[in-house]
From TrEMBL:
Keywords: DNA integration, DNA recombination, DNA-binding. This is Site-specific integrase. It holds the Pfam family Phage_int_SAM_5. One of its GO terms (biological process) is DNA recombination. Residues 1-11, 18-31 have a biased composition (Basic and acidic residues). The keyword Hydrolase does not apply. Residues 1-38, 132-153 are annotated as: Disordered. Residues 10-116 form the Core-binding (CB) domain.
Length: 416
């Protein structure tokens, strides 16, 4: 049976039957059996299963299966009330720190989201507001504790997407002349997707532009995602709608130019108003193409025939100038999750098991503050110097610590 097809028996499947498949997915790239995340997730899933069965928790806790039923917990037993109860259990269990409770719950929440995609559950119950309500508030982590891509992580991710895009583009551009159209289209689609992902990663990694300024916000029509008309690759700049509610120019440093230029050449957008980072979601594109062609007077039969000429609706949209929407910020997070796993990047962070978009901005902020100081960093980050000093105060604290250490060594070395 296809692994992505929901099954009729899923609601009656025991929870533990899904664990190994989930962990293999999370461990991919390491043979499916390695990695810190897999190990930690396996531990928390086992604890959750024990709690669900009534083997962990308060003495009066009997689990999520009705008392008059003798069986293991199944997906049919899960709803948002169960996850709410587990959040409450974690909050009162073993005197855990607030952020540790949040971290442990995220392992279960991530599994719940995977179960929705795999057809085990109808909804992401663990993310419902009522389910997460008992979780403790953030306990005031310092700005320096927030995720910031390290140089090693940045290089690992950009190297991975660059190699992946180069291979896909080469595979497409070196196809034999007699390659049939469907295979040629599929190769082009693969190359486009890899090139888009590479360009997105490089922009996030090196420009320090907020991801909300790059991509579409469904709740704000002004944030429709950057278009090709907003970019000037020759000048090394792009216009973005800033957090301060106005358009402003942002820098495109040298590492970003080549991926964008190569991607644009491959895409060959029909107009400058096309989004730089369009969605590749098949359902969205299918509905868009059908609706637009119908609005142009095409009959349903003709629309079906037209779509069948293309391996992907995105390619039809390009040929017919049917402009798709930009990906959203949530879409960017999903892309970075996928790429972080594929690149096998080691990530040790209490909140994110992948390189999150804001971490790219903060990583560049770290580089700029250390290299040029707060004033220059503030200009590049489009923030006040005061705010940059506050958010990157851990850097100054560390530098002052080095000064203090040097002073102590100098004083202590003087004979008394």
């Amino acid at each position: 049976m296809d692994r992505n097809t929901p099954t009729e028996r899923a609601p009656r499947t025991s929870l533990s039957e899904s664990f190994e498949r989930y962990l293999q997915d999370k461990g991919k790239g390491r043979g499916g059996d390695g990695g810190n995340y897999r190990r930690n997730a396996a531990r928390e899933l086992e604890r959750f299963a024990e709690w669900a069965a009534g083997d962990r928790g308060d003495d009066e806790w009997t689990g999520i299966v009705p008392d008059d039923v003798d069986r293991e917990p199944t997906f049919d037993d899960l709803d948002e009330r169960v996850f709410r109860a587990y959040a409450r259990h974690l909050g009162g269990d073993r005197g855990l720190k607030q952020n540790t409770v949040q971290t442990y719950y995220r392992y279960i929440s991530a599994w719940c989201g995977w179960c929705v995609n795999e057809g085990y559950l109808e909804a992401h119950y663990a993310q419902r507001a009522s389910a997460t309500a008992p979780l403790p508030e953030d306990d005031g982590r310092k700005p320096g504790d927030q995720q910031a891509w390290t140089s090693e992580q940045r290089h690992a991710l950009t190297r991975h997407v660059d190699e992946r895009a180069r291979d896909a583009v080469e595979a497409y551009t070196t196809l034999p002349e007699d390659t049939d159209p469907p295979n040629k289209q599929r190769a082009r689609y693969t190359a486009l997707k890899a090139a888009r992902d590479r360009a997105l990663v490089f922009v996030i990694a090196y420009t320090a532009v907020r991801v909300g300024e790059l991509l579409r916000d469904p709740n704000d029509p002004r944030r429709r995602g950057i278009r090709w008309e907003d970019l000037s690759l020759d000048d090394g700049s792009m216009d973005v709608y800033r957090k301060k509610q106005q358009w402003d120019a942002a820098s495109l440093p040298d590492p970003v130019i080549s991926p964008l230029r190569s991607y644009r050449q491959l895409m060959d957008p029909p107009t400058e108003r096309w989004p730089v980072f369009p969605t590749f979601d098949q359902r969205t594109l299918a509905e868009l193409v059908e609706d637009e062609l119908a609005d142009r007077g095409e009959r349903p039969e003709a629309i079906t025939e037209r779509r069948e000429e293309y391996a992907r609706d995105l390619l039809l949209a390009l040929d017919e100038d049917i402009r798709p929407p930009s990906i959203t910020t949530d879409g960017a997070r999903s892309i970075l999750q996928r790429l972080s796993e594929a690149a096998e990047i080691d990530i040790d962070h209490p909140k994110h098991d992948y390189l999150a978009p804001h971490g790219g901005r903060r990583g560049m902020g770290e580089v700029l503050v250390r290299a040029f100081g707060y004033t220059v960093a503030a200009r590049y980050l489009d923030n006040s110097e005061e705010m940059v000093r506050e958010r990157y105060s851990h850097i100054e604290a560390g530098e002052l610590g080095d000064v203090a250490t040097e002073a102590l060594e100098e004083i202590d070395s003087v004979p008394q």
